[in-house]
Amino acid sequence: MRRLATGITILFLAILSFFSTGAIRCYSCRSVNTPDCDSKLELTKVNITIFIVAINESQRCIKHKLSDIYVRGYEDATACKNGDNGCSSTKVADLDITDCCCNTDLCNGVSSIQQQYLLLISVVSMVIVFKNIFTV
Fold first, then answer.
1. DSSP readout, 52-87?
2. Within 10 Å of residue 6's Cβ, how many Cβ atoms?
């Protein structure tokens, strides 16, 4: 009986975790101040400030790259030249400039392919946990 109560509690908490809180989080750092805020963004090595940004029509997570300088944070959606989830690249003089915008939780960190792997690992882990809890 105790095992069933634990399983129901975990299931309830898992269901609650899927509901949106009405806000997205964006990584915020500058590679000039924080060297690990580069293209790899190794979160285990760096103290990244995470801002909570309200989901509305006016703000998006951003990642700017100016040659070898990276800036992550948030801006108004009007600054997103290539839509809510896209990047635009230009070249000014000898500098390559890339601006990316996105509107999902912590989307300005790792690439979308890495996010998909993390999601897959999370789902598989939950299935294994639930299988072990509900197996008699």
1. EEE-STTEEEEEEEETTEEEEEEEEGGG-TT-TTEE
2. 11
Element (H, E) at 104: none
- Stated length of the chain: 136
State pTM to two decimals.
0.60
Secondary-structure class of domain 2-134 per CATH:
mainly beta
Cα separations in angstroms, 113 against 39, 74, 120: 14, 21, 11
Tokens 């800036």 sit on residue = 71
Which structure tokens are listed for 54? 């309200």
Q: pLDDT per residue over 95-135, tens digit each?
A: 999 999 998 888 888 654 444 555 556 667 766 766 777 77
The tokens for 67 are 């040659």
Give the position of tokens 């101040």: 33
Strand locations in the chain, DSSP E? 23-30, 49-54, 59-66, 69-76, 86-92, 95-102
Owner of token pair 């979308």: 112
Q: Do 73 and 60 contact (CB within 8 A), yes or no?
A: no
